[in-house]
Amino acid sequence: MHKSLWALFFAIFLALGLHADEFNKMATGEPELIQKGDEKAYCPICGMSLKMFYKTSHGVILKDGTAKQYCSIRCLAADYPAIESRISKILVTDVKSEKLIDAKSAFYVVGSKVPGTMSTVSKLAFGTEADAKAFVAENGGEVMNFDAAFAKAKASLANDVDEFIKKKQKGMYPMGEKIYNAKCEKEKIHLHDFNTISELKVSVKKTQVCGEVNEQELQAVSLYLWEIVRLEAHEHKTTIHVEKDEKCPVCGMFVYKYPKWAARMNYVENGKPVTHAFDGVKDLLKFYHAPSKWGNYTKHKDSELTLLVTDYYTGDAIDGMKAFYVVGSDVVGPMGKEFIPFKTLSSAQTFMKDHKGLQVVEFSKIDEALVYAQDK
Description:
The chain is α+β, with helices and mostly antiparallel strands. The chain has eleven helices and 16 strands.
């Protein structure tokens, strides 16, 4: 009787995957996915399948109700600087129950024999201290709380990134490049339309722009597109160059100090080229609507002007008259509330959702009253 009970217990223990040799990070049933949209099944930072790495997954609920879910505490650490001020709650998968629980109350096992997810050191969470200690007894590691485990994840982030880049250079990047060159319809891939690798991955899968690919091939080509092709294009982007002595004609500040907010207006007057640099779209718009208010300047027709603004996501110099602007967000520029510019409507809409924006407006719809309303 005792032997049969022990055999049953041992079988259940193995089924839970709690031995390092047997441990499987994949969800045994349907994973609890909290993101919305087609890309809900993928990590927004690395693009990996959340189901495949469910037992190390972490999630966050932002103050506006938006949910994000990562394959690991490492990817949470990578995204943390961008969302820290907006986080309401952090969740983690309890290895034993496979339910999402409050990360702050979880017991983490750090440094066990189980390989890490996107990290050289594994970090697994349990709902009870007893479960964590039982895992340590079999697999090694140290039990600690979320704050301690997260501190280790942040401290090792740079090293983890380097290590996994080396691995991808040997495997995933070459595979992705081969698929990209052999199967992808390159002219149909517009990388600036995507804000995360998970969005790109879903698009590649749905549109079959790279043909029919399995999950590993999909991850490989998505990584290659996102981390190689996109960044190579980014290195050759056009930015707004500002000389160190250029001051904004509206506020008088040196514009070179604020490159991510730089804007520029060019026109020809009396046969001579004239250019003005601004430390934000708002000041450019003030000048555009009433140039004489800021000095001995005259109003010009739109057809006589070239307006350049800086895309908030990419840093590219884009056509200010064709850009989409988010108004009323929680992101402020050097002069306070700003018109946040984007090349694509989808990027503007994503930003508006993430940063509590009030509306997306086109250049032609921005009147002087709306400009000065941002100063209130």
